Structure prediction request, 193 residues.
Amino acid sequence: MDAGRNGATPTDERREETYGERAGGTAAVPGQRADDRPDGRAETEVERADRRWQELIQEIRVAQTGVQILLGFLLTVAFTPLFQGLEQTDKTIYIVTVVLGSLATGALIGPVPFHRIVSGRRIKPQAVVWASRLTFTGLILLLATLTSALFLILRVATHDPYVPWLVSGVLLWYLLCWFVLPLWVRIRYTSGD
Prediction:
């Protein structure tokens, strides 16, 4: 068996070439070295799309679990004896909540069949963009579902006039944690280059 130069196998040579290409500065913009890019990453457009897809899938797993548990709980409520005694307003809020939860589930699961349908078409960068949009839409719908569910539960449990204020406070907390803080960090720590 010929081990190649310096005892390296053909596989090792391929690995060295790939690493060498990355270390040499293959960037998403042809002809641009990694040193010239603001983030300092040395990745091709395809590698970037792969990385972004993996990150997106990890994020979706967290949101999907939450929305599926919430929706499963909501779907069982209609079959409880207490549900039949609810006022029509509460039943309407419940229906809106279930529909929002279903829409959120669809949007958060959407990237999976989306990827499956477009897989192998060499359009991963575009697929990642559309999957990200579906995920963001799903998060907005999840926010609406959580707010609506909290409103319904507190309304039925307490019948107090302060429920809308409490729910508004929780909604502001969600907005702060999900959007305001990340946007502030993005603006604060992203250079203008």
Remarks:
- The helical segments are 10-23, 45-77, 81-84, 88-109, 111-118, 124-158, 163-189.
- DSSP finds seven helices and no strands in the chain.
- Residues 151 and 167 are 6 Å apart (CA to CA).
- The longest helix spans residues 124-158.
